[in-house]
Amino acid sequence: MAKERNFKTISSEDDESTERTIMNRRKFMKYGFNSAAGVIAASFGVLGFASILMPGGGGGSGDLSVKYWAKGREDSAWYGSMHLQEMEVEQFAMEASKSASGMAGASGVWNGLPVNVVYVPHNENINSAPVSNKPRFQFSEGYDGTNKYVGHFEDIAETDDRIVPADNVVIVFGRCPHLCCIPGWQLVQESFTADNWTSGGTDEGGNKLFCICHSSRFDPTLLEMNMNRNRNNGQEFTYAGIRKTGGPAPVGQPIIPAQVNGSGVIEGIDDYVDWLTFCD
Ligand code: FES
After folding, report:
1. How many CB atoms lie within 10 A of CB 13?
2. Backbone angles phi, psi at 272, to 5 degrees
3. pLDDT > 70 in the chain, percent
4. pLDDT digit string (tens) for 133-153?
5. Domains in the chain, please, with CATH?
6. From the CB of 184, is ligand 1 less than 6 Å away?
7. DSSP H or E stretch at residue 26
8. Top mutation candidate among 172, 175, 179 for ligand 1, by most atoms within 8 Å of CB
9. Please, what sign has the CA dihedral across residues 194, 94, 243, 200?
10. Residue 6, Cβ neighbours under 10 Å: how many?
11. What confidence score (pLDDT) does residue 147 get?
12. Parallel, antiparallel, or unpaired: how do β-strands 216-229 and 138-143 relate?
């Protein structure tokens, strides 16, 4: 059956990525209001992350919660006083309410792995036009580092509804697909990433995740299907991730599918840890 897709209207300022199709309104509604559910399984045995394990308190086997990671930023980050405390979605919503875009982000640790968590007021904005500062998740086609078409986010999301962000939260793995940097990931507010949001996953405005190593930028609201490979054994794999909008990184960042438990704590679903193995 043919997929239902709308083409986004592009402006002369938009880059080529905006010519790609994004999911239509009905699909947004379907995915935007699906709650995460299902069996949590799998182990972390496939990962070789010993070299990047973050010290102490980052959760252990069976603990799916994401903790704040504010080391060195205790006095500057909005979550500075909550280092290693479990992230609660309401804390993000409260912080997001102070920003012009209604978004908020924080660095964290999930089962010893560095992550960034971004709050996007998707459910509040999905019924309005995708104008500036009405951020929502966008689902799009993805292209690998050679610009070869890989697939559409909905192709991978249709295999498991839990891949689609629910509860306005996306968890992004904290290693850069360029040279595997970890530190310096942050939501930035610079000239090209002011505290505003525009649609289409471009580098023009909008909060971006930023790698300070060589300035790669990623739009945490634009989800796509993409491809990466394990640098050790060369094995390629497709994954769901956020779009690279600029810089030398060849592809976007993988997500860790998220859910919010009955206590409001943000958790990562551990069925897709293979997506994180590109630096192994
Ligand atoms: S390692 Fe992130 S841009 Fe180079």
Report:
1. 9
2. -125, 35
3. 73
4. 999 999 999 999 999 999 999
5. 8-51+63-279 (2.102.10.10)
6. no
7. helix 25-32
8. 179
9. negative
10. 12
11. 92
12. parallel
Q: What is the phi/psi pair of residue 147, to 5°? A: 70, 25
Q: What is the Å distance from ligand 1's center to 97 Cα?
A: 30
116, 178, 231: which to mutate for ligand 1, most atoms within 8 A of CB? 178
In sequence order, the 6+-apart residues with CB closer than 8 A to the CB of 39 are none
**Spatial separation of the C-alpha atoms in residues 56 and 35, rounded to whole Å:** 31
Tell me the pTM: 0.80
Structural tokens at position 2: 């043919």
- pLDDT of 66 over the 70 cut: yes
Nearest atom (ligand 1) to Cα of 249? 3
Helix, strand, coil % (nearest 5) of the chain? 15, 30, 55
pLDDT band at 195 (very low <50, low <70, confident <90, very high): confident
pLDDT on residue 131:
92
**Nearest C-alpha to atom 3 of ligand 1 is from which residue?**
214
Give phi and psi for 26, each to the nearest 5: -65, -40
Dist. CA 158 → ligand 1 center (Å): 31
Q: Is 80 in the pocket of ligand 1 (CB under 6 A)?
A: no
- Contacts of 73-78 with C-beta under 8 Å, sequence gap 24+, read 73/107, 77/106, 77/107, 78/104, 78/106
Residue 190: predicted pLDDT: 59
Banded pLDDT at 204 (limits 50, 70, 90): confident
